Amino acid sequence: MRPKLEDVAKLANVSKTTVSRVLNNRGYLSQETIDRVYQAVKELNYQPNVVARQLYKKQTRIIGLLFPTIANPFFGELSAELEKRLYNEGFKVLIGNSMNDPKKEAHYLNQLLTKQVDGLIVGTHNRGIKEYNYSHLPVVAIDRNMNQDIPVIESDNYNGGVLATTHLINQGAKKIIHTNGPIELESPTKRRRLAYEDTIKAYGLTPITVTVDFNIPYIEKKKIFTQIFKDHPDLDAIFASNDVDAALIMQVALEQGLHVPKDLLLVGYDGTQIIQNILPGLTTVVQPLEQIAQTAITVLKQRLNNEPTDTEYILPVTLHKGITG
Amino acid sequence: MRPKLEDVAKLANVSKTTVSRVLNNRGYLSQETIDRVYQAVKELNYQPNVVARQLYKKQTRIIGLLFPTIANPFFGELSAELEKRLYNEGFKVLIGNSMNDPKKEAHYLNQLLTKQVDGLIVGTHNRGIKEYNYSHLPVVAIDRNMNQDIPVIESDNYNGGVLATTHLINQGAKKIIHTNGPIELESPTKRRRLAYEDTIKAYGLTPITVTVDFNIPYIEKKKIFTQIFKDHPDLDAIFASNDVDAALIMQVALEQGLHVPKDLLLVGYDGTQIIQNILPGLTTVVQPLEQIAQTAITVLKQRLNNEPTDTEYILPVTLHKGITG
């Protein structure tokens, strides 16, 4: 016989309510009571019926987060924000860093399809994962278009592109290069590129976009940035696709003897707390990270409850004016 | 009756082996087969017996990671590394950001005690959590002393402190200030302070350690750093307790009209990839992050198997010489 709650109560010499309060961390409890209850839990090898309940309800109260890597400050801060808010709503958070690992992403989707997690929030960059095509999955995407059925939460990428490019032009830049992810990536971040190109052309200038894959190592990125300076010695500004790349560009420029902002104007994208604090001078487009996290959770809960949702949620960005551009 | 694997196989018109291969992502499978199997899973509302198996085996194959916040690059990169390696060993990873939240930490311990996770890797800063006192818990700590029973994985904090301090003295610094966490925090990182003080005294200088709690907001930290410059106008070097703080100190120094390294020598601690890449000039003590992650996992697996372990694992550090000190 599996031990029951009342067996724990009896052994610990407390009421069932007290056992339940200890196990659920509720109300004031003396350390002595807590110790007695856990001692009984241990002796009996008791497991509360949470797991059993999961089995019958087919609910785990676990949400999976799939991002390229939480080692990147944007995904690190976003995951921390999501976890904080999900925890407060009674969910636990499984994390998967799926950078360059479509098999791992497929595996987590498999977890979802077989009800081992209740829902997924995904912002990965892998392509061609067929499991997303099952309809009405409790999945929301951040900055990624997966299929018609999965809602996307994103910052206003187009306006971000306009803000950054217009700002550089107003500062006097004539030859502005934009870095962005691979064109074939199905992500609303492509709209930054579109906005950059539209704005550049509206001012009678020539757009030059250089592809920098988010998923390659820093050293490869630095090679690409070095090549940009070699190919375009008359370059006077860069609108980088994220703040970490902007910081790398600043390093590479310095190695080329170019000082920001004297010789090169620079605008980044993301506006994470850590970069804003260690490089407050970086001009950047700030994404509303808390609002993105909260919207993703609200929409995911609607999906879990089979309620209708919009297909796209676009949240406002702002320009932080530093001294780099 | 709950649907069984053979019901799925029958409906999808494939063998049971094929269903199992689809659900476990094993071997070559055509997209058509995958689709047929998942369609049947969905129609039957089938849930594989993983959850049931968990219930009887009392194993979840889930490891919880408890760190102050993955928004910090050290914990972000460490968590990413731990997740990658644990995933390869067949574990999934729950994450909890427990900064300033002892209740949340106690809650995750409760999950462990009631077998909802198999083990915990903790590097939190909360104090006075009594649940750790149950013996033989499958818990390992990173940079934290919890009790006699829980093994601690740490970098060689004492040697790190010696390397940083000796380096600054060799560069000609006379008045060197060290920043470190609260003295009452039970963490091996206190040995950096001890090493700094021992080294400073061995050279006939006066140690000055300023307390900076890791868990306070950036703005509060900046106030403390500003105060340091006000209190010690003759200061010529700082050995900061982590790289993010070092980067903040560089900003604050600049606001005070002090340039690094001309007016102030600066050494950090951690050597995360991101900081090394965006601030390659920062001289810092580099922790062996991959080795810390691997050791934590190896030791945790030993605990899970009831094998004996050491109580402390000290891993070597190196000094990265940049241009700040």
From TrEMBL, chains A, B:
What SMART domains does this protein map onto? Answer: HTH_LACI
| Pfam families recorded | LacI, Peripla_BP_3
Repeat found in the keyword field: no
Q: Which key words are in the record?
A: DNA-binding, Repressor, Transcription, Transcription regulation
Question: What Gene Ontology molecular-function terms does this entry list?
Answer: DNA-binding transcription factor activity; transcription cis-regulatory region binding
- Gene3D superfamilies attached to this UniProt entry: 3.40.50.2300, lambda repressor-like DNA-binding domains
On whether DNA-binding is a keyword of this UniProt record, the answer is yes
Alphabetical list of SUPFAM superfamilies matching this protein: lambda repressor-like DNA-binding domains, Periplasmic binding protein-like I
- Report the InterPro entries cross-referenced here: HTH_LacI, LacI/GalR-like_sensor, Lambda_DNA-bd_dom_sf, Peripla_BP_I
Q: Where is the HTH lacI-type domain?
A: 3-57
**This protein's superkingdom?**
Bacteria
The record's annotation in PANTHER family points to: LACI-RELATED TRANSCRIPTIONAL REPRESSOR, RIBOSE OPERON REPRESSOR
Q: What is this protein called?
A: LacI family transcriptional regulator
Q: Which organism is the protein's source?
A: Ligilactobacillus murinus
